[in-house]
Amino acid sequence: MPLTLVRPSDPPESDAGLAAQVAQGDLRALQILMRRYNQRLYRVARSILRNDADAEEAVQEAFFLAYRAMAKFRSDSGLSTWLVRIVINESNRRLRKNRRLATWLEFGEAPERGDDTAEASMDRFSPDQPQQALLRVQTRRVLESQIDQLPDVFRSVFMLRAVEEMTVEETAACLEIPPATVRTRYFRARGLLRKSLAREFGGNLNEVFAFAGFRCDRIVAGVLARIEAENSGRV
User: Fold this and answer.
1) Prior bond to 11 cis, omega within 30?
2) How far apart are CA 115 and CA 51, in angstroms?
3) Given this model, what pLDDT does residue 112 score?
4) Mean pLDDT, residues 32-44 taken together
C-alpha cells in the first residue's frame, strides 16, 4: 500500500511524544519529525559537504538511520541534538568517501556547485516580482559562496549558531566539542565573514541554503520509500 505524505498537525506534538510513536513504527509521526527538522539537518549537511545533492542524500540517510535506531533514543540529549549528530556523522562519512574518490581519480578539490535548474524551479514559486526574486537569488548565492569558503572547523559552528540560531551549549553538544571552543570558532568565523556578510547583508542569513517545499517533500518521500522497501524485504 503506497505511503501518503502528510503535513504536521496543529498544535504541534512534542519531540518526545513523536519519538515514542516513531519507535513503535508510526510513519505519520516520522513524517512530522522530518518536516520539523529537515531544514536544520539539510543546512548542517550542506555546511559540511558544500554540495546540494550530497547534502540532501545525507539527510535522507540520516533520517532512515534515525528511524531504525529510534527505540534506542534517550531524551536526555534532546531529539534535535541527536538528529544533528547523526547527520554530522553521515555527512563526514560521505565527505571522507568523496575525498578518497577524488584522490583515486585525480579529481580537483573544488566541490560541484548546486543544480541551477533546481534552484530556478525553487524560485519559480516566489511571490516576488522577477527583479526582486533575482536579487534574492543573487544575494543568497553570495552568502552561500562566502560561507562555503570558511575553514571546515568554523563553517559548521557558524551554520548552527548564526543560521540555525542554536545556543552555544546546543552547538557544543551537536559537534561534541567544548562550549569554549564553540565561542572561539564562532567569533573567528564572524571575523572572517564580517566584511562580506555582516556589513552588506545584515539580517538576511535566513535566506542562506533555502529549503523549499519540493526539496522537503523529496526527502520525506525518499525516506518513506526506503522504509517501505525494507518492510517489503527488498532492502
Assistant:
1) yes
2) 9
3) 42
4) 94
| pLDDT surpassing 70 at residue 2 | no
How many CB atoms are closer than 10 A to CB 57?
18
Question: Cα dihedral sign for 56, 57, 62, 68?
Answer: positive
Which of 3.40.50.11930, 1.10.10.60, 3.40.190.10, 1.10.1740.10 is the CATH number of 1-106+212-235?
1.10.1740.10
CATH number for region 126-210: 1.10.10.10
CB neighbours of 180 closer than 8 A, spacing ≥ 6? none
Question: Is the pTM for the entire model greater than 0.70?
Answer: no
